[in-house]
Amino acid sequence: MRRVSIREMRGALPGLEELVQREGELVITRRGRPIARMVPFERTRPMPSHADLRSTMRRLEVPSENLIREDRDNG
User: Fold this and answer.
1) How is domain 2-41+49-74 classified at the CATH fold level?
2) What is the pTM of this model?
3) Sheet of 26-30: strands edge to edge?
4) DSSP-derived secondary structure for 4-38
């Protein structure tokens, strides 16, 4: 954990990602008092693939292009 003032934080903005990864946790202070805490984001679960998502969806009886065309022509 590293304590940084708001002034230091502003100067560190271009390298903020590296700083958070290196330090693990930042405590941001104003006039010596903590006002915020910044920690690296950790993904808790992997993103599903598009193929997995499509396999869980039921197939339409009428193709979507026909539904869109019908909606556009009748609307």
Assistant:
1) YefM-like fold (3.40.1620)
2) 0.53
3) 2-5, 26-30, 33-38
4) EEHHHHHHHGGGHHHHHHHHS-EEEEETTEEEEEE
